[in-house]
Amino acid sequence: MVPLGWVIGCPLLGYISDHLGRRKPVLIVGALPMLVSGAGIFYLPAGVVPRYVLGLLLGIGSGAAMLPYTVIKEVNSDKVKGSSTGAINFLVFTFSALLTPDYGKLLAHVANGGPMNLAEFRAASAWLLGGIVLAVILALFLRETGPRGRANA
User: Fold this and answer.
1) 12, 60 contact by CB (below 8 A)
2) 13-64: per-residue pLDDT in tens?
3) Do 22 and 146 form a contact (C-beta atoms < 8 A)?
4) CB 110 within 8 A of CB 124
């Protein structure tokens, strides 16, 4: 359901960002459904909210992850737009590839060498939610690149 959420969230949040002429607020607000749905997936008892609804909401919110591609094109000259977009894409996939085994090691560490159950998964997943919170905090320090944000600067 997360990829289906991207199909909805990426163009929707891009449209909202273009309509508002601002990137930061949409990027930050997009993280909120990610945080809520992630917490629901990890901590709500089964059956309270269907997991597919939470996955769809997670995908819609994470559609805001496309906005940094717009930001990087807005802050760089025409000569390096392709290179800068390639660099951000490289970083996204590199960090994903490098951090996935670390998450597995964290799960194994939390399980203390024993079998993994829901409690271990929840404990390790708290770091993922912390990552979303950290991303929101860091986004607060971004310079607004949208047309309305630049006009107000």
Assistant:
1) yes
2) 999 999 999 999 999 999 999 999 999 988 888 889 999 999 999 999 999 9
3) yes
4) yes
Residues 6 or more apart in contact with residue 8 via CB below 8 angstroms: 56, 59, 60, 63
In tens, the pLDDT along 95-131 reads 889 888 988 888 888 888 888 888 888 888 888 899 8
d(CA 24, CA 36): 19
Type of residue numbered 85: T
* Assigned token pair, 75: 């802050």
Round to whole Å and give the CA distance between 123 and 107: 8
pTM over 0.90: no
Q: Tell me the residue type at 61.
A: G
What is the CATH topology of the domain spanning 2-152?
Growth Hormone; Chain: A; (1.20.1250)
